[in-house]
């Protein structure tokens, strides 16, 4: 298969604060182990969004609407290809949903998601 691995992007201000994108490191390691191509520059987060922690489900999805886009010139890389989005943690799925919607809108054949952990509600 010609699946393309892409990490969940961080806004540049969050990247400066954290000093690394953990999803990018996971995606790179997965690409190295599988031999699948890895493109860390396909998706971007041009709009800074507040931390989604503490927001309700619907508010998270509203906040993420349009927050993740395709980097200019990357459409040809994803057109007709399956794409795997790699992220560290999924809580509501709002960020992953925004990323997947962007990829499908711009021509990805299919979008799969791989996360290291799933955050749940405290019991």
From TrEMBL:
<dbReference type="InterPro" id="IPR029057">
    <property type="entry name" value="PRTase-like"/>
</dbReference>
<protein>
    <submittedName>
        <fullName>ComF family protein</fullName>
    </submittedName>
</protein>
<comment type="similarity">
    <text>Belongs to the ComF/GntX family.</text>
</comment>
<dbReference type="Pfam" id="PF00156">
    <property type="entry name" value="Pribosyltran"/>
</dbReference>
<dbReference type="InterPro" id="IPR000836">
    <property type="entry name" value="PRTase_dom"/>
</dbReference>
<feature type="domain" description="Phosphoribosyltransferase">
    <location>
        <begin position="63"/>
        <end position="120"/>
    </location>
</feature>
<dbReference type="InterPro" id="IPR051910">
    <property type="entry name" value="ComF/GntX_DNA_util-trans"/>
</dbReference>
């Amino acid at each position: 298969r010609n699946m393309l691995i892409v990490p969940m992007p961080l806004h540049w201000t969050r990247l400066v604060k954290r000093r690394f994108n953990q999803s990018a490191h996971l995606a790179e390691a997965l690409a190295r182990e599988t031999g699948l191509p890895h493109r860390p520059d396909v998706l971007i987060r041009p709009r800074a969004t507040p931390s989604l922690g503490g927001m309700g489900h619907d508010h998270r999805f509203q906040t993420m609407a349009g927050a993740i886009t395709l980097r200019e010139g990357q459409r040809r890389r994803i057109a007709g290809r399956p794409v795997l989005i790699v992220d560290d943690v999924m809580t509501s799925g709002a960020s992953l949903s925004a990323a997947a919607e962007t990829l499908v809108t711009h021509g990805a054949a299919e979008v799969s998601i791989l996360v290291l952990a799933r955050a749940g509600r405290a019991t």
